[in-house]
Amino acid sequence: MRVPGNEHLSKAEWRARVLQARASVSPAEHAAEAEALASAAVSVAAETVCAYVPFDTEPGSVSLLNALVKAGSRVLLPVIPDVVGPLDWAVYTDESTLVPGRLRGILEPSGPRLGVDAVSEADVVLVPALAVDRRGVRLGRGAGHYDRSLTSGRADRFAVVRAEELVDSLPGEAHDVPMSGALTPAGLVRLPSPAVM
Ligand SMILES: Nc1nc2c(c(=O)[nH]1)N(C=O)[C@@H](CNc1ccc(C(=O)N[C@@H](CCC(=O)O)C(=O)O)cc1)CN2
Ligand SMILES: Nc1ncnc2c1ncn2[C@@H]1O[C@H](COP(=O)(O)OP(=O)(O)OP(=O)(O)O)[C@@H](O)[C@H]1O
């Protein structure tokens, strides 16, 4: 990810590169990183934490959610809305209550929907990302779900990435909500990003 010239890649090119690199991570390496992320997550445990269930090649696993619950956090997970707009939220209790959602079968809690404003109750939001740069610019999958959901709030926003996905510079846009840190298998890296207004 530090190849000279990377800084000129478009968002689409970055996405393709990261997804390709993730596809070559072995199951053993993925499992080791997921356990390391679960340990690192304890350091960000807070009263209410918004997290998500990793799918496909995303780093992490439900171990991370279980570690947060064990540490005493109230954990909220996103529920993908039927119409384009901010994410809905529901409480995570344990794996047995997760059901496949409408997008790529990403697991979601089957319990009551709390509404789009529930994210404002969070002290910490763990945000899925393909990469994040040292200024806090995050690269997502391009649906804008999180940028629409994090427009206000006092929460710390931590992008969850593999260590090599914390990069020097990503292409940013005005609507990109800055991350306050990167949660990696090596631990939490705080980033000097401005607060969301
Ligand atoms: N685990 C997880 N949960 C999440 C997200 C996420 O990125 N990861 N989201 C983050 O917003 C929201 C769901 N948004 C998503 C948006 C796109 C794709 C997706 O798989 N997109 C395809 C490309 C689709 C296309 O070609 O247009 C892909 O990336 O392969 C998945 C989830 C809420 N929950
Ligand atoms: N606050 C917002 N209000 C309305 N549209 C938005 C907002 N934020 C992003 N979008 C739109 O969402 C689309 C995807 O944005 P972007 O490429 O930044 O997604 P992303 O951050 O990579 O994806 P995601 O947040 O789903 O992981 C863009 O077309 C953008 O215009």
Automatic annotation (TrEMBL):
<keyword id="KW-0479">Metal-binding</keyword>
<dbReference type="GO" id="GO:0030272">
    <property type="term" value="F:5-formyltetrahydrofolate cyclo-ligase activity"/>
</dbReference>
<feature type="binding site">
    <location>
        <position position="58"/>
    </location>
    <ligand>
        <name>substrate</name>
    </ligand>
</feature>
<comment type="similarity">
    <text>Belongs to the 5-formyltetrahydrofolate cyclo-ligase family.</text>
</comment>
<protein>
    <recommendedName>
        <fullName>5-formyltetrahydrofolate cyclo-ligase</fullName>
        <ecNumber>6.3.3.2</ecNumber>
    </recommendedName>
</protein>
<dbReference type="GO" id="GO:0005524">
    <property type="term" value="F:ATP binding"/>
</dbReference>
<keyword id="KW-0547">Nucleotide-binding</keyword>
<dbReference type="GO" id="GO:0009396">
    <property type="term" value="P:folic acid-containing compound biosynthetic process"/>
</dbReference>
<dbReference type="InterPro" id="IPR002698">
    <property type="entry name" value="FTHF_cligase"/>
</dbReference>
<feature type="binding site">
    <location>
        <begin position="11"/>
        <end position="15"/>
    </location>
    <ligand>
        <name>ATP</name>
    </ligand>
</feature>
<keyword id="KW-0436">Ligase</keyword>
<dbReference type="InterPro" id="IPR037171">
    <property type="entry name" value="NagB/RpiA_transferase-like"/>
</dbReference>
<dbReference type="Pfam" id="PF01812">
    <property type="entry name" value="5-FTHF_cyc-lig"/>
</dbReference>
<keyword id="KW-0067">ATP-binding</keyword>
<feature type="binding site">
    <location>
        <begin position="138"/>
        <end position="146"/>
    </location>
    <ligand>
        <name>ATP</name>
    </ligand>
</feature>
<dbReference type="InterPro" id="IPR024185">
    <property type="entry name" value="FTHF_cligase-like_sf"/>
</dbReference>
<dbReference type="GO" id="GO:0046872">
    <property type="term" value="F:metal ion binding"/>
</dbReference>
<dbReference type="GO" id="GO:0035999">
    <property type="term" value="P:tetrahydrofolate interconversion"/>
</dbReference>
<keyword id="KW-0460">Magnesium</keyword>
<feature type="binding site">
    <location>
        <position position="53"/>
    </location>
    <ligand>
        <name>substrate</name>
    </ligand>
</feature>
